[in-house]
Design a protein that fits this description.
By secondary structure, the protein is mainly beta. The protein has 1 helix and 9 strands. Strand 1 and strand 2 form a beta hairpin. The C terminus is likely disordered.
């Protein structure tokens, strides 16, 4: 990823060693200047913006920002970063629900929740 932001302190299970660890998750939405956030924080806007502010519900493509601290696993470790009204509401390990490649975007606008999200 080029310019991105990070959600820190995300609890996850390493896909290789299955250890419960805390990781940072890179994502691209909002002002992408390598800002560090935690769940609950409001996103910044106004420089190198990806996306549009004030969306009702967004899911951004995420990736672990470093190898597993327990075993060093450094291959694909993907996450979803959930954003509502410019606030990070949660981070979850990716399970194939959302297809960012097919959408050709680093995020998906989920609207107000009344329609089905783009999935793969």
């Amino acid at each position: 990823m080029s310019a991105y932001n990070i959600v820190g302190g995300v609890s996850a299970t390493c896909p290789q060693c299955r250890a419960k660890v805390l990781v940072g998750v890179q994502f691209k939405f909002g002002a992408t200047w390598q800002y560090r956030y935690v769940v609950g924080d409001a996103l910044r806007w106004g420089g190198n913006d990806v996306g549009t502010p004030s969306r009702v519900r967004v899911v951004a493509d995420g990736a672990a920002d470093a190898p597993c601290p327990a075993c060093g696993y450094a291959s694909d470790w993907d996450f979803y970063v959930f954003i509502e009204h410019d606030h990070i509401t949660g981070v979850r390990e990716a399970d194939g629900t959302y297809d960012f490649v097919r959408a050709g975007s680093a995020y998906l606008d989920l609207g107000d929740g009344s329609a089905s999200p783009a999935s793969g």
